[in-house]
Amino acid sequence: MDNKVVNGTTIAYQEQGEGETVVLLHGFCGSSAYWEKVQPLLAEQYRVICPDLRGHGSTDAPMGAYTIEQMADDIVGLMEELGIEKYTLLGHSMGGYVALSLAQRYAFRLNGFGLIHSTGYPDSEEAKEKRLKAVSTIGSEGITSFIEGLVPGLFAPENVDTLTEEVNRVKEIGYKTPPQGASGAALSMRERIDRRDVMSSTTLPLLLVAGESDQIIPLERLFTTEGDNVMKAVIKGAGHMSMYEAPDQLVAVILDFLRKMDKAEH
Ligand code: MLT
């Protein structure tokens, strides 16, 4: 694990491989470890950087509410520190919200971007209530109990009892989330704005990856745009966690996207 100080915040990241740069952003209560089955395969052909977002993993977890914009600024700053001017950015779930904010304001940094089990929609009123409940549960019961409740719902119902090793691994990663980091991030998601227009107006290559049985973000909340620049894929037999439920399918989709981008450029 390496790190860089960006605007006074230490941002940790894992780096592997050489070539054009691909940045992978994890979701809520995850870390760069979420990509452990994906990063080595992509790194055979690309330079792959997996940061820990603010409040997660080994990155700083300041107290208080975060914003999605702040998390995107952390990534922009990290990439500037690394001297990488252009990259392809793929975000899982909350990481996708961060990718959209970055694409909205720093499109000139991107070769393309993508959402994996994520959405351009903001939180509904009901979801906003749930964020407050999450913060209160984390405060009263602690992060371990919160993660125990959260993780099974991330997997496709049919995978919860069969992929026990993977479910336990995702819990193990989740337990390490600093409680103030999980709360700060939950509040950032609560306040995020509608960014479907970023998806519909971009001319950059855009990858949208949905899980066939995602109980958190159903396909129709992701596939909100069409266009020659948009590549859509549905991962069979996966819920919200294809990087654990079907990593080979996910890697094949990402490589297909990256290769099409490479061809279009040359
Ligand atoms: C995530 O996996 O990042 C979260 O489930 C996203 C969300 O709660 O909106």
UniProtKB/TrEMBL annotation:
Hydrolase among keywords: yes
A GO term, aspect molecular function: hydrolase activity
Key words of the record: Hydrolase
Domain AB hydrolase-1 stretches: 21-116
SUPFAM superfamilies: alpha/beta-Hydrolases (SSF53474)
Listed GO CC annotations: membrane
Keyword Coiled coil appears in the UniProt entry: no
Name by which UniProt lists this protein: Alpha/beta hydrolase
Organism: Paenibacillus anaericanus
Upper lineage: Bacteria, Bacillati, Bacillota, Bacilli, Bacillales
